[in-house]
Design a protein that fits this description.
Oligomer: single chain
Largest sheet: 11 strands, mixed
Distance between the termini: 82 Å
CATH superfamily of the largest domain: Alpha/Beta hydrolase fold, catalytic domain
CATH class of the largest domain: Alpha Beta
CATH topology of the largest domain: Rossmann fold
Strand order of the largest sheet: 3-4-6-8-7-9-10-11-12-13-14
Strand content: 15-25%
Number of domains: 2
Length: 526
């Protein structure tokens, strides 16, 4: 008769054997042995810790090293996404419940023997208050099937990821401060450098890419000296490109438009939840707050409606990770010398709600007359359409072109794009491609996004985008066999790749006059 003791003994023998003779779905990384799942030619490892859970006394501390484990850790399911408040209409909703213990990484790699594969690392968006790696839209299988090791990870959001407080500044004076979410990103990229080879990846051929605040994070890494050597190519989707992402804020002095310092916002938040003082006791009380209290109602919708004003700082100039904008970094020769793909959708912003065309053109100051001639030459433009075009150019499209110009001036190739494709099922609802709508095409997860409404044209566009992105990860050039030619960007030719409803088209930028005007306005404001 089997006994419980006998069962444990056999389990122990099997575990020891699996350690000695790793199966194809097992890898050993720096912290221990992992077992993943083989699915349709891809081996997937989910929920791998890359840092100690940032809870308790580690709330608002840089990510700490993982403690090694013994035996085999099953990497079958996602770890929790980071603390956040979901919202209706999220195009990439997380699939697992959020928690403060959230610093996990996921890997998709081709099944079977492989080595020295390019690594592509995804940084999700969500205004630094939403997002996570568990969304089905972010499945990395298609990248792996095309010969890449795909990596995604979580980083802290909202007040968990971006926070200042006087007692924090005084404690551990040599530690990085404020931008805990960016610290997580750096830690994840270091994890990739340490462990890429275990999954068949080449740590010397790493591409980072992200969208929205994820794209802004990629730009932060391009400008930051602390990220040097952690990646070798970069892709920015709708991430801005001119100013420091989310504006210039500081740890202990006022920022743009007299914004309070991060420390002052931290004190304001403490007072809003009944915690007085700025000392270690106040910090201890803040660390004991329930996670939902720290969230404080801030998400990607409410933040645009004023939530967190005066109590949430978002990203800040910390003097170590974030020192300057990418434009300042590249102008001084300090930006990363890597190839870059950068672009936006063709209807990328929609937060403004002007009452008149005069209000729209007033943003151009001395260039208002020229702006009217460029954007509304016959005076028949619909106010909503006009407002979106101007807002898109000011916040996303011209800054993306500016980044392409910075990369080109640094002697590296830049590839500028515009995503104008609208899924066929959405063409009556969307006159153009809204913010984030390119993501399922880049990942070739359009079947998840559109289900039974998916068409052959949608599938073809997804195959094209995913292949361009894979080619760039492999070689630093998106072009390849069977694809329309994507011209390298040059200010002299103003060529871009436009992903249209009729297919990818390499062309002179039809918005050049608009963007030149925005560029003139930006240069005037320097």
């Amino acid at each position: 008769m089997w006994s419980l003791k006998s069962t444990f003994a056999i389990i122990g023998i099997l575990t020891a054997a699996s350690v000695a003779f790793a199966a194809p779905d097992e890898v050993r990384i720096d912290s221990g042995l992992l077992k993943g799942v083989v699915q349709d030619g891809v081996t997937v490892f989910k929920g791998i810790p890359f840092a100690t859970p940032p809870v308790g006394d580690l709330r608002w501390r840089p990510p700490q090293p993982v403690k090694p484990w013994t035996g085999v850790k099953l990497a079958y399911k996602f770890g929790p996404d980071c603390m956040q408040i979901s919202f209706p209409g999220d195009m990439t909703p997380p699939s697992v419940a959020p928690a403060e213990d959230c610093l996990y990484v996921n890997v998709w790699t081709p099944a079977g023997d492989s080595a020295k594969l390019p690594v592509i690392v995804w940084i999700y968006g969500g205004a630094l208050v939403n997002g996570g790696s568990s969304s089905a839209i972010y499945d990395g299988s298609q990248f792996a099937k095309q010969g890449c090791v795909f990596v995604s990870f979580n980083y802290r959001l909202g007040r968990f990821g971006f926070f200042g407080f006087p007692a924090l500044t005084r404690a551990f004076p040599d530690e990085l401060k404020g931008n805990y979410g960016y610290m997580d990103q750096l830690a994840a990229l270091k994890w990739v450098q340490m462990n890429a080879a275990a999954f068949g990846g080449d740590a010397h051929n790493v591409t980072i890419f992200g969208e929205s605040s994820g794209g802004g994070s990629v730009i932060t890494m391009l400008a930051s000296s602390l990220a040097r050597g952690l990646f070798h190519k970069a892709i920015v989707e709708s991430g801005g490109g001119r100013k420091i992402f989310m504006g210039r804020r500081y740890l202990n002095k006022p920022g743009d438009n007299h914004a309070p310092s991060a420390e002052q916002m931290g004190v304001n938040f403490a007072q809003s939840v009944g915690i007085e003082g700025e000392d270690a006791a106040a910090l201890a009380a803040l660390r004991k707050l329930p996670a939902d209290t720290v969230l404080g109602g801030v998400n990607d919708i409410s933040i645009h409606q004023g939530a967190g004003a005066g109590t949430y700082c978002s990203s800040l100039v910390d003097g170590k990770i974030v020192v300057e904008s990418q434009g300042e970094a590249y102008a001084a020769g300090r930006g990363a010398k890597v190839p870059v793909m950068v672009g936006t959708t063709n209807a990328d912003s929609a937060h403004g709600n002007p009452s008149s065309k005069d209000e729209v053109f007033r943003q151009f100051g001395a260039y208002a007359v020229q702006a009217r001639a460029v954007y509304d030459p016959d005076g028949n433009a619909e106010l909503k359409v006009l407002s979106r075009a101007v807002e898109t150019d000011l916040t996303m499209v011209e800054p993306a072109r500016f980044l392409a110009q910075s990369i080109t001036a640094a002697g590296e190739p830049a590839y500028f794009f515009r995503f104008s494709y609208v899924a066929e099922a959405k063409r009556k609802e969307w006159p153009a491609a809204p913010h984030a709508s390119e993501i399922p095409f880049v990942f070739d997860t359009v079947a998840v996004a559109y289900g039974r409404d998916l068409t052959e044209a949608d599938k073809a566009t997804a195959r094209d985008l995913n292949t361009y992105w894979v080619n760039f990860a492999k070689t630093g050039n998106p072009n390849g066999k069977g694809l329309p030619e994507w011209p390298v960007y040059s200010p002299l030719t103003n060529m871009l790749m436009n992903f249209t409803n009729a297919g990818p088209v390499g062309q002179v930028d039809p918005w050049k006059a608009r963007l030149d005007l925005v560029e003139a306005l930006a240069n005037q404001d320097k």
